[in-house]
Amino acid sequence: MARKILNIIFFLLLCAFAAAFIFPVAVILINSFKAKFSISQSPFTIPTGNDFVGLSNYTAGIRSTGFPSAFGWSLFITLFSIAAIIIFTSMCAWYIVRVKTAYTSVLYYALVFSMIVPFQMVMFTMSKTANVLHLDNPLGIILIYLGFGAGLSVFMFTGFIKTVPLGIEEAATIDGCSPFETFWLVVFPILKPTAITVAILNSMWIWNDYLLPYLVIGGDYRTIPIAVQYLKGGYGSVDMGALMAMLVLSVIPVIVFYLSSQKYIIKGVAAGAVKG
Q1: Cβ–Cβ under 8 Å, residues 96 and 158
Q2: pLDDT tens column, 52-97
Q3: Quick one: angle between helices 265-272 and 192-208, nearest 10?
Q4: CB-CB contact of 31 with 238 (8 Å)
Q5: pLDDT given at position 230
Q6: CATH code, domain with 145
Q7: Does residue 155 belong to any structural domain of this protein?
Q8: Segments in the chain below pLDDT 50
Q9: SS3 of 55, please?
Q10: How many structural domains are present in the chain?
Q11: What is the pLDDT of residue 34?
Q12: Which residues of 13-44 are buried (b: 16+ CB within 10 A; e: fewer)?
């Protein structure tokens, strides 16, 4: 009986936490259909009558921000950054696990250490370096995202690869596979849960990132977070209706990707946290 009561209490606490996280998203969605002045006067009410403006906030926001172009740049940078992170960090992790030398140990701990260095400590030198090396463009920022995303990704891939039996790779080698073929044909398919987890974690970060694109590529190639900023007018005025609508459009792709891949997250994180 006591255990049942504890389960009920635990369930209610989880529901409360879920409501706390869902509530802000629901408020943004509701206000995206409201008139500008209704948002400031009654932000928590359902739009009715004259308060309801339909899709006009969405059309105004798309027109003001150049949303299709911003969406395209965000999608391009996110997809290719995720592809680069998964490809290169998975190979790096495999090399670190299978080739045990002082060099690979130093490399591993250097990558792990990079996770605890705050971005604010390196953002000015990073932006200057990016400018000098001509990385201040959509292709160059992909390399920068690869660098910043390598620490956590290598850590997770390394933990998973330690659980992969070495005998599978030895059998592939006996069958005539080169190291390159062994990794891509045998090891990488096994890494699918961790690869998807790495993709989800990094995609949410890269898609929503404002500071790094602002510092590196500025307004020449506006991503969605930068484009949304341009809804702020003179003297601090903000078109709140259009802002809410653009926030809704910006989170939809991440939510869809997360929901379609969420079953791999716990499995990938647990496997990537193996100590060995």
Answers
A1: yes
A2: 888 888 988 888 888 899 999 999 999 999 999 999 999 999 999 9
A3: 100
A4: no
A5: 79
A6: 1.10.3720.10
A7: yes
A8: 272-276
A9: coil
A10: 1
A11: 86
A12: eeeeeeeeeeeeeeebebbbbbbbebbeeeee
